[in-house]
Amino acid sequence: MTNHHGDFIWYELITPDADGARDFYQKVVGWEIEAAPSGPIDYRMISSANGAVAGLMPLTPEMQTGGARAAWLGYVSVDDVDAMARSITDGGGAVHMAPWDIPGVGRIAFVADPQGALFYVMKPTPPANAPDATSLSFSYDMPRPGHCAWNELASADPTAALHFYGQRFGWVKDGEMDMGPLGTYQFLRHAGRAPDGSPPGHGMIGAVMPKMAHMPVSAWTYYFRVPDIDVAVAAITADGGSIVQPPTEIPGGDFSMVGVDPQGAVFALVGSRV
């Protein structure tokens, strides 16, 4: 595949109610979500108009007994999953699920950074009929409805997190914004995609900010693009979700918001006001 080491290449919703989550997100984001799995395991594809962008995995009772809760998780592309797992533990992070192979999909590991934020690392297997396929789950180059537009880390130690991710994925700080009592919002650029001297905004993948006091742990939040932020907000409240942060204007004229779906997973949206 043509994605770079350090790219976000996939997103996954784990939920105790697959049918309820399917109904909610189809109305809120406009995705098409499989009603039933197409393969041997219960894993359902989430698609935009451009193809699959994420997956939905039901949580079994056993998973929930073990502590798993509804959440959105991101996948970062790496050149070598086993080497990255070792690097993560050497850097103070944790490997919660050791590297394993999913036939026809790739090799993955479920990990956490030193502050406890969870994510996957993955070396994908290219489709046999498309060896140069590129994941567009995270849209670098243009606004694409239904795709992730921003990856935001709320960390108990933003400085340490910047160092950790920078050493392993080539992400670098590219500017900051003062949020007053909430601290400093530090923008992240993928240096592998956009070296120093690139045009402003090129290679931007998201930001790191201080974890707010009410958050139990450091965590990633993923912002998916919708065509009309107000229509999406209306759908959230009408279909059992809740609003944590109402639409707020961001640089460039779009609006972003944060919500919680009916099953308890935190998600975020970005879009225009039509």
TrEMBL record:
InterPro entries, per the entry: Anthracycline_SecMetBiosynth (IPR052164), Glyas_Bleomycin-R_OHBP_Dase (IPR029068), Glyas_Fos-R_dOase_dom (IPR004360), VOC_core (IPR037523)
Species annotation: Sphingomonas psychrolutea
This protein's name: Glyoxalase
All residue ranges annotated as the VOC domain in the record: 7-124, 144-272
PROSITE patterns given in the database record: VOC
Domain of life: Bacteria
Pfam families reported in the protein's UniProt record: Glyoxalase
Coiled-coil stretches: none
Signal sequence annotation: none
